[in-house]
Amino acid sequence: MKNLIHDIDKVIVKVEITGKNILRGILIDSSSELVVLFNGKEYFYIPYRHIHEIKIDYFNEDGLKIPSIDTQHKLFNGINEEMTFEKVLTNSIGTYLEVHVLNNQPLHGYISNILKDYIVFQSPIYKKLLVSMKHIKTIIPYNNNLKPYQLSDNEFFIEECNENFQDTFEAQIGNLRNKLTVLNVSEKNNFTGVITDVNGSIIEFRSAKDNFYYNIQHIKTIHTS
User: Which domain of life is it from (predicted)?
Assistant: First the structure.
């Protein structure tokens, strides 16, 4: 199938993504699963599921200049192979990243494990987070592998995570029964409490005062103490 977006590679565009956020930059690369946008400083890897609209920016309000040579992006430089979301995630393991999942603020840290439909994300603020892949809006690698918040090696370093994780997000959630958990950290509608039961795509959740039921499909991140 023809990739229509490939026809506007190396063109300055505006991209509207989920949450009505507008990103501006040069469309560096595209595939059937995602596009790569370069804003003059950073690369944005954006899955199609979160792209609502792409428009050519004829006015170039940010004054971007198209590079005279092809700019090589950090997380995928494959030749004669399809750029996939899985390959980008795999290539990013151990690289410091800014990942946009939540509406209020991005996550900063690195990916330590990749499972079937979620990742394990190590954050200097939240430590270990489980992040649903389908809710990842953008991935932005740090320039020169700088550390989040300019932390030193002693304050934040990459360490191997040897925990055994379930293959799917839903199965892993089932392993978190009776553990103190935060769902969708740093988002307005976040929930702190205990997962008491899991049945299909629904969890039973006990907060400090109430019991309620929540759809797993709307869980973006999970943090356990």
Answer: Bacteria
